[in-house]
Structures are given as structure tokens and as C-alpha cells.
Design goal:
The chain is globular, with a radius of gyration of 21 Å. The longest helix is centred in the N-terminal third of the chain and has 20 residues. It has ten helices and 21 strands. The protein is α+β, with helices and mostly antiparallel strands. Strands 5, 6, 7, 14, 15, 16, 17, 18 and 19 form a nine-stranded mixed β-sheet that branches.
Length: 383
């Protein structure tokens, strides 16, 4: 091994979790090498809405982490030249039980612990977004903390920016085969490092599979679409409706949620069966990002269901008037899910930390989580 084959820290995985850890380590002055098995990241970090979504996080650890992540996103976007839209979000209510949940949420958390949320009338919601469907609209929850990035652009640009500004050593197309500190071996190279962060996302079979074998872990497959919009206007805030209230942990402590659950289970059983709740986001090209569904098992069929896509689009029309759209792309993403936990954080051997299972909230939580981990580890002495 020559001097160019050594670093303080190695990161395995070039998605948002790995990039966040690289950023935090570089900010602290460490020499960092990042390994990504593909020529560019193609996993869940680019197959999502690009939403930084604090409003979905339960009060406490998750929400606080999301707000810190948001601040880091603002800094990274400014310095790296990334598009970021501080557009907020609207949860739209078309039934009394949905409005009841929103009112209870505001009563519990409005103006508390960083939540910037307000209950709006139907007219006020329409003023926030011209595409909101007003028929039968009872009201809406407005939150100002949500942001939108273009994940395809961001996940490509951030590693290049980190290399340009901080000297991040990029090893795309390099599969890490084994870790036995101080050695990290890839298919082509051997590196000497002091610390490793394994941020490998849905590929948790390659390194330390025994760690995952002991956990209640699965994989979630979600289906999404991108659409061209003939109207070509801004939707304003990112939009969602009643189904989303039972998807995110933030609303779990609302006792009125059980009434909503029962109605949806009775009226829309197939939506629950397919884990559908619908978000509408918009990227910097004006395109609409629409999704999604959730199916849980360790191995998923590679084939997507058009019936699921149509259920998503049908529900979209219940709260957004987007008119004639052209579906440009359909895809699915897969992410690991650790039941009952915000994330997986484990040290399978001294000097190695596995960071995974952010449960579909990687864009929202990664920077905050990486900050916590690097602050903790920076207090330790690297060999």
C-alpha cells in the first residue's frame, strides 16, 4: 500500500446517507475516501420525491434531526450550486375525520418544538396552491419547514463538490469486498483506514449480513412516476391529503386518527393493501413527481403493477387539479426498513459503524444523523 492508498475514514455507499457522512467528516478535517459500487448512485437516493419532510417526523429525536438536516441542506445547496425550493407543504382535508386529525395535531404541536404549522380554511389553502381541488375541501394543514430538491441532480453534484472543495477521494465502480481494519479491500484496491462507515442501503447482504440476520428488517418497494404538465405552472407547496395522515409517525399520537383509519379501511381497502398514500412534488424543470405505494418483503418482483400506478393517479385527482398530464417515467425504489426504529446504528467490530434503515426518510434525516455520529466519533481517538 502506498501513501495514496490511505485515509482517515472510508465511507461505503454513495447515496445520501454516505454523502452526508462524508460531508460531516470532511468538515472536521478528516481525509475521506468514498466507495460506491456503481459508476454513479442509482438506488433509493435518486428514486424519490426530493422532499425534505420534517412535518412527517414524530416530535423529539426524529423531528429535531430533520430540522438540523434541513439547515445542512440549505448550506450544501448554496455552496454546491444546487436547486432547493423552500416551498412548505399542505395536508388537505376533504372529510370531517381528516380535519379532526389536523385540528388535533395543531392543538398538540402548533408552535411547539419547531413545528411551523397552521390550520387553514379552504380559501386560504387555495391561495397557497392554485392546483388544490376546492370541491368538498374542509381545510388544510400548512407547514413551512418542508423543502424540495432534485435528487437526481443533488446526488450527482454533491460528491463532485465535496471532491472539489474538500478533496474527497471518490472511488465509483469499486465494490468493497471485505473490511478488516485497518484494511478495506475492494475488487481492485487495498486501503488503510482508521474508521469505516457502511452506508449501503438496500444492499445489506454483502457486508456484515449476520448483523441484519438478527434484526426485524425488511425491504420496501415503492412505485413512482414523473409527469410533464401542460399547464407548466408552480404547484406552490408540496401536496398531500388524508391518506398521508396515517402514513407518517408525526400523526400517531392523534387519537382521532383511529376514526379516519376505520373509514379508509372500509371504503378503500385496496389502498391500504398496497400501502398507498399520495404526495405531489415538483422539480426545477416544472415536472410533477407522483407517488407512492409500499410493499414489504426481502425480495421483490422486478415488475411494477400498472394497477397500483392507476390507483395512485386516481387518488391524486381527489385533491389536485393538474389536468392533462403526460407520464414520462415510471419506476420503483427499494429501501431497507427496520421495524420499530428510526434507523440502524451498530458497530459490528471496533472501528466500523453500520448506518442504515432510515425507513424512506433518507433525504430528510441523513445530514442530521451524520452530524450526531461524527460529533460522537470525533471525540474518540482515531488510530
Amino acid at each position: 500500500m502506498n501513501q495514496h492508498q490511505s485515509a482517515d475514514i472510508a465511507i461505503v455507499g454513495g447515496g445520501i446517507v454516505g454523502l452526508a457522512h462524508a460531508y460531516m467528516a470532511l468538515e472536521r478535517g478528516y481525509r475521506v475516501v468514498l466507495f460506491e459500487r456503481e459508476q454513479f448512485a442509482i438506488g433509493a437516493s435518486v428514486r424519490n420525491f426530493g422532499l425534505v419532510w420534517p412535518i412527517g417526523q414524530e416530535p423529539g429525536e426524529g423531528f429535531d434531526r430533520a430540522l438540523r438536516s434541513r439547515e445542512h441542506w440549505m448550506n450544501v445547496a448554496r455552496e454546491a450550486g444546487l436547486w432547493i425550493n423552500q416551498n412548505g407543504s399542505l395536508h388537505l382535508a376533504y372529510h370531517e375525520d381528516e380535519l379532526e386529525v389536523l385540528q388535533e395535531f395543531v392543538d398538540l404541536y402548533g408552535g411547539v418544538d419547531g413545528y411551523q404549522c397552521t390550520l387553514l380554511s379552504a380559501d386560504q389553502a387555495k391561495n397557497k396552491s392554485s392546483v388544490v381541488k376546492t370541491k368538498n375541501l374542509k381545510g388544510a394543514l400548512w407547514s413551512g419547514t418542508e423543502c424540495t430538491v432534485n435528487p437526481r441532480e443533488a446526488i450527482r453534484r454533491i460528491p463532485k463538490w465535496l471532491a472539489e472543495k474538500y478533496g474527497l477521494i471518490l472511488r465509483f465502480g469499486e465494490v468493497v469486498k471485505s473490511i478488516s481494519l485497518p484494511k478495506v479491500e475492494t475488487s481492485r484496491e487495498t486501503w488503510k483506514v482508521d474508521k469505516v462507515y457502511v452506508c449501503s442501503g438496500a444492499d445489506f447482504e454483502t457486508l456484515y449480513p449476520d448483523v441484519y440476520d438478527r434484526l426485524d428488517i425488511t425491504k420496501c418497494k415503492l412505485q413512482m412516476m414523473k409527469a410533464a404538465w401542460r399547464s407548466v405552472q408552480s404547484i406552490g407547496p408540496s401536496l398531500c391529503a388524508g391518506l398521508t395522515l396515517r402514513h407518517y409517525a408525526a400523526f400517531n399520537k392523534c387519537t382521532s386518527l383511529s376514526k379516519l383509519d376505520k373509514r379508509y379501511d372500509k371504503e378503500e381497502g385496496k389502498l391500504k393493501e398496497n400501502g398507498i398514500h399520495v404526495l405531489l412534488a415538483q422539480n426545477n424543470a416544472g415536472e410533477l413527481i407522483i407517488g407512492d405505494s409500499h410493499h414489504y418483503q426481502l425480495t421483490h418482483e422486478p415488475f411494477d403493477s400498472e394497477e397500483v400506478n392507476q390507483m395512485i393517479l386516481t387518488y391524486l385527482t381527489s385533491f389536485a387539479e393538474v389536468g392533462d398530464i403526460e407520464i414520462l417515467e415510471r419506476w420503483h425504489g427499494i429501501y431497507p426498513k427496520l421495524n420499530g426504529s428510526l434507523n440502524l446504528l451498530v458497530e459490528p467490530e471496533p472501528g466500523v459503524t453500520v448506518v442504515n434503515c432510515l425507513g424512506g426518510a433518507g433525504m430528510t434525516l441523513s445530514f442530521g444523523l451524520a452530524e450526531e455520529i461524527l460529533e460522537r466519533d470525533s471525540n474518540k481517538v482515531f488510530r
